[in-house]
Amino acid sequence: MPENENPHFLFFSSLLGKKVVGADGRELGRLADLVIATGEPYPPVESLVFKARKESFQLPWSAVEEMNGTVRLKPDVQPEPPPAAPVSDRIRLTEEILDRQIVDVEGAKLVRVNDLHFLVLKGALRVAHVDVGFRGLVRRLGWERVVDGAISLFRPGASYLKTESFLSWKLVQPIDSAPGRVRIEVAQRVLATLHPADLAEIMEELDRHQREVLFGRLDVETAAEALEQTSPELVTALLETVPPEKAADILEEMAPDQAADALSELPREQQQELLQAMEKPEAEEVEELLEYPARSAGGLMTPDLVELRPEATVAEALAEIRRRADELPFIYEVFVVDTGGVLKGICTLKDLVVGDPATSLGRIMREAPATVAADAGLKEVARAATKYNLLSVPVVDADGALRGMVTVDDILAEVVDAR
């Protein structure tokens, strides 16, 4: 294409089906696909694919002389059959992107690609946007002129005529049919930036195959954070799609109570296989939680909390919180226990922030307003949290030894799921 051509935009739908002609004007076939090279925010079209009868042929984009009513090629170009297998770092737009669901990273949602928007610049064709709007679908179907005319006649002020539903290419990542290693790594980096709750919602909306593809791309930490936001049934289903070693790594990263919920849905043999593959300390915590009914205090509690002796100082408590901040999903307070693990009191984060660094926890601690036994039901735990406005409810055994805590978010999750 001429490099001195003024920069402009065009739609993929305006190119698909165009005649591909040689330098002598002889028709060679019809444009069927464009192949882009990944690795750039707005990737260039590297080659084109055209069909002649039932055969497909591929040419480098540099072979294109110009595009007007047809795609005219330069002299002496030799079309070749497309590669039989997918090529790493290359994406065929018709085959792999058009009509597919993608993750809109900025909006943290799933959208469908109805068209693609290219920037023509210095002879290169670059993907600039994906069109996820209804107008893009109308354009693809060839109805744009008719529909636009009808809407202009009856509703000239309609937003349909004024706005385009474009997403910048660099903000979206394909989630299906991705054989290239680079594409997978790019998706991992971008998906890891989504909030776990958004990522969990996206996975729940996908069909089974796409869900497995997306889950397989996540690193262990991101996968664990996302699974903590979804149902135990879906967690179990997804864990079964990865090798036991990776499943065990993900379970180790999850909160123990969430991991126990996921394992509880599996047959006993699979439970034991995954527990044996986990690191011993994490496996023991999860195994203990599996002994309790799912909707009991024991089944809901997490053993991940901060326990210190009464003689520990405020400064030491804050240092311990900082040390364990990355491994603890929630830190609402410090639990003060004696040498036998019996709960003696609690110190809230406010107590620690305003307290004298040299003061011992035994001097500023207060009695826990309420505790529950491990076999307490959900209603009893919720009642204690509501009555005393607690962010977490301590779980103790018959001797008063601290076993764990039930956080208010776990209580709310169970109450919502029960409705």
Reconstruct the topology from this structure.
Elements: E1 8-11, E2 19-21, E3 27-37, E4 45-52, E5 55-60, E6 64-67, E7 71-73, E8 90-92, H1 93-96, E9 101-104, E10 109-112, E11 115-121, E12 124-131, H2 134-141, H3 144-154, E13 166-168, E14 172-174, H4 181-191, H5 196-205, H6 208-217, H7 220-227, H8 232-239, H9 244-253, H10 256-264, H11 268-277, H12 280-289, H13 297-300, E15 306-308, H14 314-324, E16 333-337, E17 343-348, H15 349-354, H16 361-364, E18 372-373, H17 378-387, E19 392-396, E20 402-407, H18 408-418
Tell me what the structure shows.
This protein has 419 residues and is of the alpha+beta class. The chain folds into three domains: 1-168, PRC-barrel domain (SH3 type barrels); 192-289, MgtE N-terminal fold; 306-418, CBS-domain (Roll), CATH 3.10.580. 37% of the residues lie in helices and 23% in strands. It has helices at 93-96, 134-141, 144-154, 181-191, 196-205, 208-217, 220-227, 232-239, 244-253, 256-264, 268-277, 280-289, 297-300, 314-324, 349-354, 361-364, 378-387, 408-418, and strands at residues 8-11, 19-21, 27-37, 45-52, 55-60, 64-67, 71-73, 90-92, 101-104, 109-112, 115-121, 124-131, 166-168, 172-174, 306-308, 333-337, 343-348, 372-373, 392-396, 402-407. The strands form five sheets. Strands 2, 3, 4, 5, 6, 7 and 8 form a seven-stranded mixed beta sheet that branches. The protein has a four-stranded antiparallel beta sheet with strand order 1-11-12-13. Strands 10-9-14 form a three-stranded antiparallel beta sheet, with helices on one face. A hairpin with a 5-residue loop joins strand 16 (333-337) and strand 17 (343-348). The chain is elongated. The chain starts with 7 loop residues before the first strand and ends with a helix.
